[in-house]
Amino acid sequence: MNLVLTRRAIADRHRWLIGWSIGISAFAVVNIAFWPAFEDEAATMNEMIDRMPESLQSLFGMGGGIDPFSPIGYLSSQVYALALPLLLLIAALGVAGSLAGDEERGLLETVYALPVTRARVVIERWLALMVLTSVLAIVSMVTVLVSTRVVGLEAGAGAVALATLSAALLTWAIAGIGLAVGAATGRRGVAISVAAVVAVASYVITSLADAGIGFFRHIEVVSLFTRYAVVETLAGATPFGSMAVMLAVACIGVAVAVWAIDRRDLRAG
Amino acid sequence: MDAAIVTRTLVKRFGASTALDDLDLEVPVGGVFGFLGPNGAGKTTTIRLLLDLIRPTSGTVSVLGLDPRRDGVALRSRIGYLPGALDLPPRLSGRDFLADQAALCRRRLDAEVAVLAERLGADLDRPMGELSLGNRRKVGMIAAFAPRPELLVLDEPTGGLDPLVQQTFRALAREAVADGRTVFLSSHVLDEVQHIADSVAVLREGRLVVEGRIETLIAQLVRTFRVRFDDVAAPPPEPARLVDVPGVVAVRSSARGPELEIDVEGAAGPLLAVLAPLRPTDLHCAEADLEDLFLGYYGGADRS
Description:
By secondary structure, chain A is mainly alpha-helical. Chain A has 14 helices and no strands.
């Protein structure tokens, strides 16, 4: 395998990659830059937050018993809890959906007619997604490490690296679902919609479960966001079990994609 | 192996609609095979089945002795394909696209690509989204011909090409055949097929309505002779007198004066022998071509 399709999928997105890198970096820098100001106000803000109902606190990524105005609580709620995985996911779903999207546009007719298997096309496109999202994740990690040090926000480099890896794994798990749906249906819109619904439902289930609502505590095990225990990770935990689950979901997604695309008619452009 | 393509009772349904209905097709190795039919007849469906892009509902397909489903990769390394609705990455140049195609075939085809680009006058440097339809199809044609495949499967190959390029295309097809390779091309433009195909099959609504050598089919065509009798001393005979002549299918009086329109199938000799003593003053017969074949089989009302 000479990875022609992976290289082409990456080369096609070099401007996309520059744009997303700048966007994610800028987002991280801007949020972290407000840390000194928040730190000064921490005491007042804490009183205010304490008066909010717990469910509301958790929806803003402030649950989990971590002081939201501690350095790690701040980094979690401002960057890692929602915004970073959301940005990575939006980027990744565009790439995951392109397998079906390119098929719908007829652009893969000349590829599938060559001596290559459909499985190879799926796997090469997935590799491109992994490379592109890894670049974005690494860019975000470097930005966070540099800017936290500049503003004096204490966060361990190892913990930040592990939190970034968790975000990437969460992204891959949901993108893997999108890839599988796209491979099974040949529809970009369906692939992205299903993956987005999974992501939103997961986030809501986990947040409401964190807020202590009984029903959601029972079903939170099915939510991918439950596996994304980023506050604890930033605080020094090493949730390798949860990370393995997210990795497994991504692998199953790719396997299902490979299996499903070989069991249907390809779309004519 | 004496057949490049064999299909047996091939059926393809898309939901409730039947695209191909019991298609038995046999394409010999070597030569140009014209696969004819109006839009929607099932030509593209058949072609996509040959490449395992879609799968049969029932029946079998064998291409170059292989099963497209089981031996897809091995088979596709021996086929060059030009899609009918050719969609190419708009931001990619023809050169980059063709380099990718060659790399996916594990081949170096720079020399072949250069020769073909020169002959077709293809622009390989501009993004393909900026090229005209005809110029994009040149790129597609280069992709199909460059690996010198045993079987060329070309879906409506000359659509959008100017006459000069069509001529180059015909030369390329003839050269492939001279090498012992097979060209399978679909078309609804009869002219282009008639001039390069050795054999044709005509598809209508998913069924094969006729197939055979092109000369044989033309010889079997029903042609219409217009016979004029301007000499007042020799008026046109009663149509009834001619209907029993061998080969005559129908006789009508013309609206254009003393003239008969006589439909003849096969040899016209017996009719001419009967006509000669009746002193006709003029005889006209349109050259039979596939248009007649088509309209005949499709039941076109405007048959001429």
